[in-house]
What we know:
The protein is of the alpha+beta class.
Amino acid sequence: MRSTFSGLNTMVRGVFANQLSLDTVGHNITNASTEGYSRQKVNLAATRGQGVSSLYGNVMVGTGVDSMSIERARNIYADKQFWQETSTQEYYKTTQVNYEKVEAVFDDSDKTGILNAMDEFYKAWQNLSKDASTASARVAVIEKGNTLADRIKTAGQQLQSQINSQYDDMRVTVNKINDTTAHIVELNKNIMQQEATGASANDLRDQRDLLVDELSKYMNLNVYEDEKGMYSVVSNGITMVGGVERLTLEMSDPINNGDYGINDYVINIKESGITFLPQNGSLKAQQDTIAEDKAYIDKLADMAGFLLTTFNNMHQQGAGINGTDSSLGTFVTQPDGTVVDESGREYKGPLYGMNFYGDDNTVYEWDADNHQMKATFMTAGTVERSITFTETNNSDGTVTRTPKVDISGTVKSTDTVRGINIITALTVNGQLSKTGGQNNVAARIFAVEQKTDENGKLLDGQYEIVPNGSKDGTNAVNLSALMNMSGSEAQQYNTANIHLNHSGEAISTSARATDADSLNAYYNAITSRLGSDAESLKAKESSQEDLITQIVNWRSSTAGVDWNEELTNMITFQKGYSACSRCLTTMDEMLDRLINNTGTVGR
């Protein structure tokens, strides 16, 4: 038989259940703007019924309601999708920022960039070609050459700074990752302790998921939950967090990279010492953008290498306007700057075979196979320059005679030069920059002419090399054209045969640092590719942003707090609370009547 007061217990359970549901609604409403919060709901269930006999047997009478648990609304599939796509989005964002910085390095919109310097350098040579004897035109060539070298160097230094900044950002990212994984471990511990009694640590779980959201920005990851409710976070096959244990990332000691003039770093796992290689996220983007910036330094080095090799080779074939043309011959530049002939007397002829860029005692050649520059340094005072000519028999019976410049000397050292070191070597020859050095700019060319006797009669089979007149600017024309000339077009100008006496090996003048492209075409290809890549990445980033928005909406549809829904629930539970309270009052009045106003026998 049911207890007289069992109805009261049923209503009390109803009051408690509705009160708990109202409290949960209030918790949802107050946390509607809390980042990472998932709405919660009380799971209610009818309590076990009580058997009561009836006319046809026992019946089960309900005894009310009780709360089973308070659960958060969460879609784990949306979470996994969000973590995966967030890594990709952050990769695009970080890479896009780097592209914007690189575009600023190569910005030519305000006429202070490399393209403007190349154009001015080209125009200076064109002006010089019109009158090679004009001092102002010669000085302008040197000044514009200095400007171009300075712009290329500045761009290289900016890219170096950008790489160093990326490493600084990477160090900050590594620290954030370590802090995040440490907090996840602490939350794993707290969640395990709170849920040991069967409760659900909803708010702590929200905080942990928010940390995983943050961690997914830095690296690709997969998340697994064990039977104790603790997360394991795995990235690239490495368990960064495993329950109450975690791995720590650290930056390696600096690794000197002489090719780029910087210190490189790798990311190691402190506990094992192995290298950590993320596959996505901002950390991966930082590593990739550093490699990208190095590639652009290499492209600038290609341009500098072109000027130090191909452009220098062309300049070496011409002559300055200093000295007396009739005194043309072999000469050696002494360490003190004086020039002597083969007999050790003062050389009075025009200078030739000089570098426009780089050191005057160094021969530069491009090693196309290894994509590097070879610099052969010769002892000052031993570098001898001489000029002869070669003869080529043509099919029509004529003979072509071509001037040939030879440079020999005592080799001090031979180095291979790469990256930023090529750019650093790009300075205008000091012989041209000193007082009166503009007269050594090789604007005119040599010609092979048949000798004559004192009466002006041509001497059969006798030829000599002579520089063209002082106003000749043919070599200036060739040098200006070289800026816009492809490799195949420039073959006719690559006639210098420069060799070193220590080896007797001829240096190839056909290999170009810019491959078959002219300097102008090569630079335009760099900037065009940069713009194309940046635009393509921007489109990818925009598309990824749209995808993330869809996933966030998907998550919010499950975990987000809907004000209308919560207010509706509030009214529902308020009415339920009031109804249970009213029913409880009614039952109390009935029992009061039963106990106090009936059964007066014996009074």
